[in-house]
Amino acid sequence: MRSIAVLNQKGGVGKTTTAVNLAAGLARAGLRVCVIDLDPQAHASLHLGLGVATGHESVYEVLVGDASLADVRKQVAENLWVVPAHLDLAAAEMELAGEVGREVILYDKLEADDQEFDYLIIDCPPSLGVLTLNALAAVTEVFLPLQPHFLALHGLSKLLRTVDIVARRINNNLRLTGVILCLFESSTRLAGEVAGDVDQFFGAGAGANTAWADAQVFRTRIRRNIRLAEAPSFGQSIFEYDADSNGAEDYANLAREVMGIALSNADRPKMAGAA
Ligand code: ADP
Ligand code: MG
């Protein structure tokens, strides 16, 4: 199984749109995909067609309570499952504050899960708090969506440092493997310039000895497309909402590119210090 956290502590950069439509693209290609919605705003859950979950039917109960992933996971399409979020999740940050091992609760629940998936995709909240740390402890890959405006790389050092620290202290197999340019406006000069900056930032030789040394910038750029912004309110992926849109084309291409990456270490993460 490949396990991917879609992470950027900025809001509005395309995390949820990417988590949902990449997952749907992979599911359409015949792969079994589970999305875990770790954002209290529950946008991924809604986008995938679920109504607002009650507290005890959501990932909140998995992290704070006794629920297993299977208890709250719902199938939303062929090959596609979601572990929904709920507004209550916002309180988890506080409620887990005194808990020993609070960063590895999701990891443990995944270890105990008996379902087999080809892809696990986690939609992270726009923060680097305990929910995001649970995601980073539980996956082997981070995908970073970036919106190409002039501050795209601003604040990135904090995110990269967080990934690096988690990789060293908690989850030795964690790597930032993919950077995705989202909300791309191909007609503007700025988009082209920022794309060049991003290529250079993550280019050959950059980040040596860090968890992002091998990050690739995906060739597929997700163009700004109104259909992608409309689809969530219908509870449909872009493929259901408008299969002929640029958005569907871009996410289908991204899914193909993601499937094509050869990874040497695609197994479940191993905990630091574990035998
Ligand atoms: P995040 O999860 O990082 O906060 P979202 O995926 O929710 O970001 O995207 C922010 C907003 O931009 C949402 O309203 C979403 O529908 C819209 N959006 C995302 N990607 C695109 C795109 N490529 N074209 C047009 N609108 C987009
Ligand atoms: Mg989001």
Summary of the model, kept short:
The chain has 275 residues and is of the alpha/beta class. It has one domain (2-260): Rossmann fold, CATH 3.40.50.300.
Distance between the termini: 21 Å
Q: Helical element count?
A: 12
Content of β-strand: 5-15%
Number of structural units classed as domains:
1
How are the strands of the biggest sheet laid out side by side?
A: 3-4-2-5-1-6-7-8
CATH level 3 topology: Rossmann fold
- The average pLDDT is 91
Bound molecules: adenosine-5'-diphosphate, magnesium ion
Main beta sheet strand tally, sense and closure: 8 strands, mixed
Radius of gyration: 17 Å
Structural class comes to alpha/beta
Residue windows where pLDDT falls under 50 for at least 5 positions = 262-268
Shape: globular
The CATH class designation is Alpha Beta
Fraction of residues in H or I helices: 25-40%
CATH architecture: 3-Layer(aba) Sandwich
In CATH, the homologous superfamily goes by the name P-loop containing nucleotide triphosphate hydrolases
Order of helices and strands: EHEHHHEEHHEHEHEHEHHH
Please name the defining characteristics of this protein.
binds adenosine-5'-diphosphate; Rossmann fold; 275 residues; Chromosome partitioning protein ParA; binds magnesium ion; alpha/beta; globular; single chain; AAA_dom; 8 strands
